[in-house]
Write the structure tokens for this entry.
Amino acid sequence: MGFFDELKKIISGNDLHDQPDSYASNPPQQIRGDEYFEAEGWTTLDKGQIWQKGRLFRFVERTSPARTYFGFSGVDPRKEVQIEYLNFEKERKTFTACLGSLQKKKNSIHISAIVLPKKIRIALNTERILNSDTLPAIPTRRERRKIASQLRKGTTNPEYEKLRSHFPVFAPLLPTSQEKRVMTFHENRGSTSPLFEQIKAKFTPPTEKEDSSAEITEETIVAESKPEPELATMDVIITDCGLSTHDALKLLQELKPDMSYYDISTLLRDFPQMAFENLPPEEAEAIKIRLEAAGCTVELK
């Protein structure tokens, strides 16, 4: 065993020689990964290969036992696209490519894609693609990395929205930080509210919406015709804080992960400060209790 194998064993705390005979066929890392994603709310589409959570996909591509590639995508890895191509011999070819594998370089006239059934990556000249008008706008590798980074966070921002306007196929709709907090709040507690149901419907995959709306009765038509009541929301305002703001600062860093340390620290001076806006009453009340336990004086409006 080499130096790096020994170092890897020390860091991971595992000794490869002490593994059972079934280790080669059932790697514990894969099993733990499957269990972890299912526990986190991911749906297994292909055991050990593809998971889905809302409109997000996590896929694993194992090219060999020694190399494993992980990735997040807003495109179902099973989705295909047909590319009509005229090769250098003036022969018309039809390639079936994985939609999510389409890539291009900046200022290049070539695109690359993984084609089926052999799953090999090929490069194609865009000037020879006959149905280029039917293909979606393809992001560069750098733009794909930015999209994937935001997909892992699970929330949107202005930069992501700009990418989504240019590449709607590759960048799906993501919730804002506030919507994410509402969804996490109710999912962790198994509760619901009108605002949560509205947000949940907004981010339900289209296929699930179609299945749920297959049966339409007179009662549903009457219910839909009634005007929806306005959703009550509350603001959380910090009016004062104790001598020590350490606990309150840690709590706000947990509740507002998108804010910088400086922005969060400003919420704990020059009172009153608006900490949260337009929250459902249940979540606002829960945050108020936690802030008061951290030494703050809080009002709800």
Remarks:
- The longest strand covers residues 56-64.
- The CA atoms of residues 237 and 274 lie 5 Å apart.
- Residues 80-134 form one domain.
- Confidence is low (pLDDT under 50) at residues 15-31, 209-230.
